[in-house]
Write a structure and sequence with these properties.
By secondary structure, the chain is of the alpha+beta class. Helix content is 25%, strand content 26%. The relative contact order is 0.10. Keywords: Chaperone, Cytoplasm, DNA replication, Metal-binding, Repeat, Stress response, Zinc, Zinc-finger.
């Protein structure tokens, strides 16, 4: 329930400034605009811009994923539909005490239910702990589990050749990362977090109210199961700091425009030593002057002389890593495509695609008198031989 609880507390559409029925392209466009404006490198020393940058990144990571977006919409629709409707209106903070909810016509206050205000208890914790009659700490709460860092996304632009053959690029990423002072533990160097004595490390405490037993997040450790008596001064006990870092990313051969590459564990750092999220790199590929791609095959249009088609020739054709000689058979027609095996884009499974060479007659802008005279002689000889390319037209 932890992600769903966070979803109820944030309106990702509002964070990106788009409508709830916005298309994937509109969401991407809004995110890129805001990411450029709010990036910490463009707003040094501005904590408000930094916080908004984190919220925008989180919103995009959910709304850009069709499955996550569907789950997000369904979760919020369920609570907006009236089964659980906050007195302060939806969307709002489902954060706990002081908010009255209506179910079946009867009002109740979450603060009364959970015994006071504050803390990390929310509507998600209501479902996680409600009717836990056994009391005790047998069940493991999501609140006491390590909180994995969020996934991040960045972009890079490659040349056509680098995308086809593969390359290594340095990427500068500004994001929450493990604190280098406490190594992500949140505790001052030389000390360690200790098990919370109130909940015995479960993150939850139990109490009875009437005929029911309830479990609620431990107020002493905020549901984490551990206490930090002497927090790290650099990260204030979170184990995380926003910093800029450079990552050398290996781009595999054959990557295509718009493709996302996942770098496991390179996203936002988890809290108090929890696993980091992943970093997704969206690759943009610049067009090539000569080549286009068709899967793993390369396509190129090669200008040739008419005489080379008629008489046959061996011509040099460019490739991604040099050139290759291609034989044109005599009497080849204009527009014919010749296939050169294994000179295309490398395949992940080994080998490479093919190079497809389409021949196109190039007509000279002008000829000197000798060439024109030779062309007239050829035209005459061709007519006298009886060749007529339009002989069947009009019949």
């Amino acid at each position: 329930m932890a992600p769903q609880r966070e979803w109820l507390e944030h309106d990702f559409y509002k964070d990106l400034g788009v409508a709830s029925d916005a298309s994937a392209e509109e969401i991407k466009k809004a995110y890129r605009k805001l990411a450029r404006e709010l990036h910490p490198d463009a707003n040094p020393g501005d904590p408000e811009a930094e916080e908004r940058f984190k919220r925008v990144s989180e919103a995009h990571s959910v709304l850009s994923d069709p499955e996550k977006r569907k789950e997000y919409d369904e979760t919020r629709a369920m609570f907006a539909g009236g089964r659980f409707r906050g007195g302060n209106g939806f969307p709002g903070g489902f954060g706990g005490g002081g908010t009255t909810y209506t179910t079946g016509g009867a009002d109740f206050d979450l603060g009364d239910l959970f015994g006071g205000t504050g803390g990390s208890g929310g509507i998600g914790d209501l479902f996680e702990g409600l009717f836990n009659r056994g009391g005790g700490t047998q069940r493991t709460s999501t609140a006491s589990r390590p909180r994995r860092g969020k996934d991040l996304e960045t972009e890079t632009t490659l040349s056509f050749k680098d995308a086809a053959l593969g390359t290594t690029v340095p990427l500068r990423v500004t994001s929450p990362s493990p604190c280098t002072t406490c190594h992500g533990s949140g505790a001052k160097p030389g000390t360690s977090p200790r098990v919370c004595p109130r909940c015995n490390g479960s993150g939850f405490v139990s109490r009875n109210q009437g005929a029911f037993g309830f479990s609620e997040p431990c107020q002493d450790c905020q549901g984490t199961g551990s206490r930090i008596d002497d927090p790290c001064t650099d990260c204030s006990g979170t184990g995380v700091k926003v910093r800029a870092r450079t990552i050398n990313v290996r781009i595999p051969a054959g990557v295509e425009d718009g493709q996302r590459i996942r770098l496991a564990g390179q996203g936002e750092a988890g809290r108090r030593g929890a696993p980091s999220g992943d970093l997704y790199v969206v690759v943009h590929v610049t067009p090539h002057k000569y080549f286009t791609r068709s899967g793993n095959d390369l396509r190129v249009t090669l200008p040739v002389r008419f005489s080379e088609l008629v008489l046959g020739a061996t011509v040099s054709v460019p490739t991604l890593d040099g050139s290759v000689g291609v034989k044109i058979p005599p009497h080849t027609t204009d527009g014919r495509t010749l296939r050169v095996r294994g000179r295309g884009v490398p395949k992940r499974s080994g080998g490479a695609g093919d190079l497809l060479v389409t021949l196109k007659v190039a007509v000279p802008d002008k000829l000197d008198e000798a060439a024109l005279e030779a062309m007239r002689a050829y035209d005459k000889a061709e007519r006298e031989s009886g060749f007529d390319p339009r002989a069947d037209w009009g019949r």
